Amino acid sequence: MNEEAIGKEVVDAAIKLHRDLGPGLLESVYEAILARELEKRGLQVKRQVPIQIQYGGEFFEEGFRADIIIEDLVILELKSVERVTPVHKKQLLTYLKLTELKLGYLLNFGEELMKNGITRTLNGYL
Fold this sequence. Notes:
This protein is an alpha+beta fold. It has helices spanning 3-21, 27-40, 86-99; strands spanning 45-55, 58-70, 74-79, 103-108, 118-122.
Protein backbone atom coordinates (compact mmCIF):
# COMPACT_ATOMS: atom_id res chain seq x y z
CA MET A 1 0.00 0.00 0.00
CA ASN A 2 1.38 3.43 -0.91
CA GLU A 3 1.23 6.69 1.07
CA GLU A 4 -1.91 7.95 -0.68
CA ALA A 5 -3.86 4.75 -0.02
CA ILE A 6 -2.74 4.79 3.62
CA GLY A 7 -3.82 8.43 3.88
CA LYS A 8 -7.33 7.58 2.71
CA GLU A 9 -7.60 4.87 5.38
CA VAL A 10 -6.30 7.27 8.04
CA VAL A 11 -8.82 9.98 7.19
CA ASP A 12 -11.69 7.49 7.04
CA ALA A 13 -10.73 5.89 10.36
CA ALA A 14 -10.21 9.26 12.10
CA ILE A 15 -13.61 10.55 10.97
CA LYS A 16 -15.33 7.34 12.08
CA LEU A 17 -13.60 7.42 15.47
CA HIS A 18 -14.46 11.08 16.04
CA ARG A 19 -18.08 10.50 14.98
CA ASP A 20 -18.37 7.58 17.42
CA LEU A 21 -16.59 9.12 20.45
CA GLY A 22 -16.77 12.86 19.86
CA PRO A 23 -14.21 15.50 20.85
CA GLY A 24 -12.60 16.11 24.21
CA LEU A 25 -10.94 12.85 25.21
CA LEU A 26 -7.23 12.52 25.93
CA GLU A 27 -4.89 12.13 22.97
CA SER A 28 -3.76 8.77 24.34
CA VAL A 29 -7.32 7.42 24.09
CA TYR A 30 -7.65 8.46 20.45
CA GLU A 31 -4.17 7.08 19.73
CA ALA A 32 -4.92 3.63 21.14
CA ILE A 33 -8.28 3.30 19.43
CA LEU A 34 -7.12 4.75 16.09
CA ALA A 35 -4.12 2.39 16.06
CA ARG A 36 -6.42 -0.58 16.64
CA GLU A 37 -8.84 0.57 13.94
CA LEU A 38 -5.99 0.88 11.43
CA GLU A 39 -4.66 -2.56 12.39
CA LYS A 40 -8.14 -4.01 11.77
CA ARG A 41 -7.86 -2.54 8.27
CA GLY A 42 -4.73 -4.62 7.71
CA LEU A 43 -2.14 -1.90 8.26
CA GLN A 44 1.10 -2.26 10.21
CA VAL A 45 0.96 0.31 13.00
CA LYS A 46 3.65 1.38 15.47
CA ARG A 47 2.89 3.63 18.43
CA GLN A 48 5.18 6.01 20.32
CA VAL A 49 8.12 5.26 18.03
CA PRO A 50 11.40 6.78 19.27
CA ILE A 51 13.23 8.70 16.55
CA GLN A 52 16.92 9.54 16.84
CA ILE A 53 18.25 12.93 15.90
CA GLN A 54 21.57 13.27 14.11
CA TYR A 55 23.41 16.52 14.62
CA GLY A 56 27.05 17.33 13.98
CA GLY A 57 27.78 13.74 13.03
CA GLU A 58 26.42 12.42 16.33
CA PHE A 59 23.22 10.58 17.14
CA PHE A 60 21.02 11.59 20.06
CA GLU A 61 18.40 9.34 21.61
CA GLU A 62 16.62 12.36 23.09
CA GLY A 63 14.79 12.93 19.85
CA PHE A 64 11.05 12.60 19.78
CA ARG A 65 8.40 9.95 19.75
CA ALA A 66 6.11 9.76 16.77
CA ASP A 67 2.55 9.12 17.96
CA ILE A 68 1.87 6.64 15.14
CA ILE A 69 3.83 5.46 12.12
CA ILE A 70 1.94 3.37 9.57
CA GLU A 71 3.69 0.88 7.29
CA ASP A 72 6.94 2.81 7.88
CA LEU A 73 5.55 5.36 5.40
CA VAL A 74 3.15 7.79 7.10
CA ILE A 75 3.44 9.68 10.39
CA LEU A 76 0.40 10.65 12.44
CA GLU A 77 0.65 13.37 15.05
CA LEU A 78 -2.45 13.42 17.25
CA LYS A 79 -3.81 16.35 19.21
CA SER A 80 -6.90 16.94 21.27
CA VAL A 81 -6.85 20.72 21.56
CA GLU A 82 -9.31 23.51 20.94
CA ARG A 83 -7.26 24.88 18.05
CA VAL A 84 -4.20 23.74 16.13
CA THR A 85 -1.44 26.36 16.06
CA PRO A 86 1.27 26.94 13.46
CA VAL A 87 3.83 25.31 15.76
CA HIS A 88 1.91 22.01 15.63
CA LYS A 89 2.15 22.04 11.85
CA LYS A 90 5.86 22.90 11.95
CA GLN A 91 6.43 20.08 14.43
CA LEU A 92 4.97 17.52 12.01
CA LEU A 93 7.05 18.84 9.12
CA THR A 94 10.19 18.57 11.25
CA TYR A 95 9.28 14.98 12.13
CA LEU A 96 8.88 14.19 8.44
CA LYS A 97 12.27 15.71 7.62
CA LEU A 98 14.06 13.87 10.43
CA THR A 99 12.59 10.52 9.41
CA GLU A 100 12.83 11.27 5.67
CA LEU A 101 9.21 10.21 5.29
CA LYS A 102 7.08 12.02 2.74
CA LEU A 103 3.56 12.14 4.22
CA GLY A 104 2.14 13.01 7.59
CA TYR A 105 -1.21 13.90 9.11
CA LEU A 106 -1.91 16.17 12.04
CA LEU A 107 -5.20 14.94 13.49
CA ASN A 108 -6.88 17.21 16.02
CA PHE A 109 -9.65 15.32 17.76
CA GLY A 110 -10.56 18.46 19.72
CA GLU A 111 -12.40 19.98 16.76
CA GLU A 112 -16.17 19.88 16.68
CA LEU A 113 -16.02 18.39 13.16
CA MET A 114 -13.13 16.04 12.41
CA LYS A 115 -12.82 17.22 8.81
CA ASN A 116 -11.72 20.59 10.25
CA GLY A 117 -9.09 18.85 12.38
CA ILE A 118 -7.21 17.10 9.58
CA THR A 119 -4.02 18.65 8.22
CA ARG A 120 -2.12 16.78 5.51
CA THR A 121 1.59 17.62 5.33
CA LEU A 122 4.08 16.72 2.62
CA ASN A 123 7.85 16.54 2.86
CA GLY A 124 8.74 17.02 -0.80
CA TYR A 125 6.65 15.38 -3.47
CA LEU A 126 4.86 12.03 -3.61
